[in-house]
Amino acid sequence: MENCKKYAEIAKLQGETQAIQNHIAENWEKRAATNRTIEAIQEQIGEARSGKVSDLEAEKQAIKAQKDKLEASKNEAMDKLNALQSQMIQVTKDARGIILSMSDILFDVGRATLKTDLMTSLAKIAGILSVYQQFDVSIEGNTDNTGSEEFNMTLSQQRAENVMKFLVEQGIAETRLTAKGLGMTMPIADNSTKEGRQKNRRVDLVITDRTQKVK
Q: How far is CA 137 from CA 10, 24, 124, in A?
């Protein structure tokens, strides 16, 4: 009888031991599954980070390539504009951009009608602007101090507008152009001399790179 009790206790202990072992094994399996899940997530994070870095690097390279392309295009345009330098057109550069100063000999005295030589020069300029779309143009009419302020302001505005109209007729979008008459307010030479007055009678095309305005 006593032996039966001992066997029963042993069996009970064995059962409890087995249950504990099963519980431990189950926990180990859960822990292993958890570790596998964590490893999989970490791998996904690593792949995502790697992909993101690759995407950012590709984007940086694309931006650099675009900047290089714009810079090369700008340099080409400047070379072509500099080639327009002549007795009638002076090409300079300042903080605003490239300045094409057209002599008043391209207009009849006191008139705003474009002469043939001026139209020929403007057609060349329009050809350059049509290729290099990043450039905008501010057309500025200027006079010397001969005559009334009102007359000179009106004349300079008409000349600037006629230049703008011609460029539009050559296919340049009006949104890229502005025209304003400055009259005698922006002299570049001494109005007390004949030579100075001749320099002041001009139409300036101020050519700016639109892509440089956005930083």
A: 102, 82, 14
